[in-house]
Write a structure and sequence with these properties.
Blueprint (H helix, E strand, L loop, with lengths): L4 H23 L3 H4 L7 E7 L6 E11 L2 E6 L6 H8 L2 E6 L2 E9 L3 H14 L2 H7 L8 H7 L4 E10 L12 H15 L1
Antiparallel strand pairs: 1-2, 1-4, 2-3, 3-6, 4-5, 5-6
């Protein structure tokens, strides 16, 4: 089944926004500023490329329930990050409050899939209304079942603590350096 023009456009638009804004914001420690009930709650999944072996970052909407983190792949198995996780299910989740090392599992139980899907859709804010025309608070079980024909529901089971923007290798250090440079520059003027 071929990808529609709308799907291709959305994939490209998301890729541009994610690479140019969302991922750098999380790596700079600004993840907590991006989430809201209206704009959605976002995390970044850090994986290893299934072909290249290079580190990849993918922002997704998420939900937390019973100590587990759930997300959905709206483009299903075509998504590169799904291929990355299938090849190597160990990943890091950059959540707004910190980072977790996790193991990805595909949710198979129908009741768990529908419950997780509904909560992730609720947590996605206006995007689900804008792109899918769905009110997640009122969506029927039949519509959820229909969505689950293409969407994949993933569960992340925490296995440890991951490195956040504030840890070695993170980008938060850029803020104090930039502030210091600006302060020195303004004092010397």
């Amino acid at each position: 089944m071929g990808e529609s023009r709308k799907d291709r456009f959305l994939r490209r638009a998301f890729r541009l926004m994610n690479k140019g804004f969302v991922v750098p914001a999380f790596r700079l420690g600004l993840g907590p500023l991006l989430g809201s009930p209206y704009g959605g709650y976002i995390m970044v999944i850090k994986t290893r490329g299934w072909k290249s072996g290079r580190t990849r970052y993918t922002p997704v909407d998420y939900a937390i329930a019973n100590g587990l983190v759930y997300c959905i792949a709206g483009f299903g198995d075509r998504s590169h990050w799904i291929k990355n996780l299938r090849a190597e299910p160990e990943a890091e989740l950059l959540l707004p409050g910190g980072a977790l090392a996790c193991r990805m599992e595909t949710v198979e139980d129908e009741a768990e899939k529908q419950q997780a899907l509904r909560q992730v859709l609720i947590n996605s804010g206006f995007a689900v209304y804008l792109f899918e025309g769905i009110n997640p608070h009122r969506v029927t079980e039949a519509k959820l079942a229909e969505l689950l024909q293409t969407y994949r529901v993933l569960r992340f089971r925490p296995t440890g603590i991951g490195a956040s923007a504030y840890d070695p290798g993170g980008w938060f250090w850029l803020w104090p350096v930039a502030a210091t440079v600006l302060l020195i520059w303004s004092l010397l003027r």
